Amino acid sequence: MNIFRLAGDMTHLLSIIVLLLKIQATKSCAGVSLKTQELYAVVFVTRYLDLFYSFISLYNTVMKIIFLLTAFTIIWYMRKHKVVCQTYDKEQDTFRVLFLIVPCFVLALLVNHEMSVTEVLWTFSIYLEAVAILPQLVLLQRTKNVDNLTGNYIFMLGSYRALYLVNWVYRYFTELGYRQWIVWVSGTVQTCVYLDFFYYYVQAWRNNERMKLPG
Q1: What's the per-residue H, E or C state across the chain?
Q2: Whose CA is closest to 151, among 22, 10, 5?
Q3: Residues 6+ apart with CB under 8 A from 53
Q4: At what angle do helices 134-143 and 34-47 cross, to 10 degrees?
Q5: Long-range contacts of range 15-18, CB-CB < 8 Å, 24 or more positions apart?
Q6: Considering 21, 36, 67, 189, which has the largest number of Cβ atoms within 10 A of its Cβ?
Q7: CA–CA separation, 138 vs 134, rounded Å?
Q8: How far apart are CA 111 and CA 113, in angstroms?
Q9: What are the beta bridge partners of residue 211?
Q10: What backbone torsions phi and psi does residue 110 show, to the nearest 5 degrees?
Q11: Which domain does 103 fall in, by range?
Q12: Where would you find the membrane-spanning parts of this chain (predicted)?
């Protein structure tokens, strides 16, 4: 564990807390993509299968459980809560997630560190996380205006991965034999996906105005 990974984990956790607070406080999930939230749930389920057979540390275990529980809590709110679910914009959130899931799974079968069920699923989760935010970004482009809490959520989610990039660089120079090129490439792609959003987020912050994304 180093300061960059810890900062990344805390930023990731804070992004989820911000989203949950938005939903709980406003009783609304307007501007939030259910498809992206379900993709993240798939990411966490396929990545954290080692909870059943491996123990790394208490911190590691607790964080994995938190990410799993919060992912399904958000989905429950958006699907089942009698007030929140009515604010979900299903007609705008139409990204076809199979266009992400199928290529990521095929790529995981072809490019992985080891041909085993758990390793392929772990690799699949890495590839899928890199593009899971796309339905959310498309939804925001369609609705144009982005409320502050949703904008902060996405900004922190992107920042978490950027901090992990720094973490990987740090580990490359400080840990002998540390090589995780699948993670490195996927993380770089994921960070690049956020760049356009980062630009408009910073512009809105500098101008002290509500964030807007071009169509």
Answers
A1: CCHHHHHHHHHHHHHHHHHHHHHHHHCCCCCCCHHHHHHHHHHHHHHHHHHHCCCCCHHHHHHHHHHHHHHHHHHHHHHHCCCHHHHCCCCCCCCCCHHHHHHHHHHHHHCCCCCCHHHHHHHHHHHHHHHCCHHHHHHHHHHCEECHHHHHHHHHHHHHHHHHHHHHHHHHHHCCCCCCHHHHHHHHHHHHHHHHHHHHHHHHHHHCCCEECCC
A2: 22
A3: none
A4: 170
A5: 15/152, 15/153, 15/154, 15/156, 15/157, 15/159, 15/160, 16/67, 16/70, 16/71, 16/74, 16/153, 18/149, 18/152, 18/153, 18/156
A6: 36
A7: 6
A8: 7
A9: 146
A10: -90, -35
A11: 3-212
A12: 51-77, 97-115, 121-140, 152-170, 182-202
The residue assigned the tokens 């501007």 is 31
Q: How many domains does the chain have?
A: 1
Q: Which residues contact 167 (CB under 8 A, 6 or more apart)?
A: 2, 4, 5, 8
Tokens of 54: 């491996």
**Grouped pLDDT means (10 residues each) for the chain, 215 residues:** 92 96 93 96 97 92 97 97 95 95 97 93 97 94 83 92 91 87 92 89 85 74
Tell me the two tokens of residue 158.
């992107």
Give the distance between the most distant pair of CA atoms in the chain.
53
Q: Give Cα separations from 136 to 88, 96, 206 (angstroms).
A: 12, 12, 23
The one-letter code for the residue type at 15 is S
Tell me what pLDDT residue 12 has.
96
What tokens does 188 get?
A: 């770089």
